[in-house]
Amino acid sequence: MIIHKGAVAKRPQSLPYIQPMESKYDFQFLLYNNMRKLIYLIFLAALTAGCSGKQKEETAKNSLQDSVELLEMPLIPSEITDPNQRVDYLVIHFWDGLDFKDTLLTHNRDFLEQNFANFSQALIISNDSSARRKGAATLMKKAEADSVVYKMLSEIAYHYLYDPNSPMLDEESFIPFMEIFKDSELLNEAERERNRFLLQNALKNRPGMRAADFTYVTNDGKTTSLYKTPVKGNLLVIFYDPDCDNCKEIIGKLAESPGLREMINQGDISLLAIYSGENKKLWDETAPSLPKEWTIGYNSGSIEDNDDYFFRASPTIYFLDNNKNILVKDLSPSRLP
Question: Of 97, 193, 235, 289, which has the most beta carbons under 10 Å away?
Answer without folding.
Answer: 235
